[in-house]
Design goal:
about 425 residues; Double Stranded RNA Binding Domain; DNA polymerase, domain 1; hpI Integrase, Chain A; 3 domains; 3-stranded antiparallel beta sheet; DNA recombination; DNA integration
Length: about 425
């Protein structure tokens, strides 16, 4: 809470000072800061700062934190107190604060916000028709904000602890949407007819490897190893941040969780399609085992191949538009692009993979997230997948040898071969 720094006196000697943020004046909206200086050592400055902080917490200072409104504190938290957080999480926090939290509870005083008020707030979100997952994300944002309020002494207890969701979970949980193997085949056939060839490789990679959209958009050629037949997830595109003053820029961040940073084996058709994508942009001949990396946009795997936009990286709106266009062409029921990830998991589950294997494949942090696939073909739960097989490492063809071939899981018949 205290910021301690040194400064020089006129005689050249060093002294120490501290600043303490003591809240926001509810009348003026200005920050309240306590500034004291003249301490001979950093240790003494720290001791005095600790005493000053204790005065604020005990209410002995005339700067009373009990007058702070929720809106004032939450704005302070998101701009000054929230550190070492992924940009993707910050985008969600800012969105939840602006759209849901501050409009509903911003006028309540922080010290007066109790579990009762919080339960009423959560209930109102369900009454507004929000899903359980969305409400939990909003609750998580507020929980983190008020956890910091406890840590710095603004309040003594986090009022979000103990809130209940169970009464709403069944009615508000979303149904799992996915395509069948035949529907996947129809989608791919329609994608082959698209004027932009990059979309075929992009969507097949999502389907066969189960990547999140942002993970696929962030893939670089340095993440692809054709000889080992692998792609590595090392980053994600934060396309929600690529708006406003950031329009036209590329926002990258660490993967969603530590488990999300992973290496995936490619199916035969993904390997072939990515080689085709590479050769459309570069002319290095045989790319088996070649690892390409640059600092400019050409380093991204999925960039446009058509003349008008050649080399330009994907944008979120364009991926949605292409997905809907191809879905309509195939005459398929509409799902979200993210549901291709569910489709991947469901087809792997039907092929006999255990939930633990699917958890690792998708990069889930823990098995609880993967449990949504538990009821998919339960009779096959313990069956070893005959369609997941190893093939010889010494194959004298352009296609790199596969360690794990999942192609039959995702196609109606045998894996399709794409020639260059």
């Amino acid at each position: 809470m205290a910021s301690i720094s040194s400064y020089k006196l006129k005689d050249g000697k060093k002294a120490w000072e501290f600043y303490i943020f003591a809240g926001v004046d509810p009348q003026t909206g200005k920050e309240i800061k306590i500034h004291r200086r003249g301490f001979p050592t950093e240790k003494i400055a720290q001791q005095e700062a600790t005493l000053a902080e204790a005065e604020i917490i005990r209410g002995h200072s005339h700067y009373q934190t009990e007058r702070i409104l929720m809106a004032d504190y939450l704005n302070q938290w998101i701009t000054k107190l929230k550190v070492n957080v992924k940009e993707g999480s910050m985008i969600i926090y800012r969105y939840n604060l602006k759209k849901y939290i501050i409009p509903k509870i911003g006028d309540i005083r922080l010290a007066k916000y109790t579990l009762k008020e919080h339960q009423e707030f959560i209930s109102s979100l369900f009454n507004d028709g929000l899903s359980l997952n969305t409400v939990k994300l909003i609750n998580g944002t507020l929980h983190n904000a008020l956890k910091k309020a406890v840590a710095i002494g603004y309040i003594t207890k986090n009022p979000t602890v103990g809130v209940e969701f169970s009464a709403y979970a069944k009615d508000n949980s979303k149904k799992l949407h996915f395509w069948t193997k035949d529907q996947v085949g129809s989608f791919i056939e329609a994608a082959e007819e698209d004027k932009e060839p990059m979309w075929l490789s992009f969507f097949v990679t999502l389907i066969d490897c189960g990547l999140r959209v942002g993970e696929a958009m962030a893939l670089r050629w340095s993440d692809i190893d054709f000889s080992k037949n692998t792609l590595s997830v090392n980053a994600t595109r934060i396309y929600r941040a690529e708006t406003g003053s950031n329009a036209g820029k590329i926002a990258l961040d660490r993967p969603k969780t530590l488990s999300s940073k992973r290496t995936e084996y490619m199916t035969a058709r993904v390997n072939d399609l990515l080689q085709q994508q590479y050769e459309r942009h570069f002319s290095h001949g045989n790319v088996q085992g070649f690892r390409f990396s640059t600092s400019h946009n050409n380093d991204f795997v999925f960039t446009y191949s058509s003349d008008a936009k050649f080399g330009q990286p994907l944008r979120s709106r364009a991926t949605t538009g292409a997905f809907n266009r191809i879905t309509n062409r195939a005459g398929l029921p509409h799902i979200r692009i993210h549901d291709l990830r569910h489709t991947h998991a469901v087809l792997m589950r039907e092929a006999g993979l255990s939930l633990d294997d699917i958890k690792d494949d998708l990069g889930h942090k823990d098995i609880s997230t993967t449990q949504i696939y538990a009821e998919i073909s339960p009779a096959k739960k313990e069956r070893k997948p005959s369609t997941i097989r190893k093939i010889p490492k010494s194959v004298n063809t352009k296609r790199a040898p596969e360690h794990v071939d999942k192609s039959e899981v995702f196609t109606k018949t045998s894996p399709r071969t794409f020639t260059t």
